[in-house]
Design goal:
87 residues; mainly alpha; globular
Length: 87
Amino acid sequence: MARVCARRAMGIVIGEYLYRRGYKELSTSVYDRLQLFGSLPDVDETLKATTRHFLLKVDHNRRLPGDVDLISEVETLARILLLENTN
């Protein structure tokens, strides 16, 4: 459940980031928003890599691979993409 909520939050964060940069007709799909974000040439590669964590598939135990913490990552990305870049 936390994973789903973190993905929804990431969709909102990415949507707001894109909206602030002039993208007005955005898909409501988190996947589509993440794909668009990942295709932007001016976005830091580290941020793109972090957002790809939200597209990872869970294993048979419903766990993400490695030490991925989507809740922490969405909080960090929200701070970087929205709060520190309010232009």
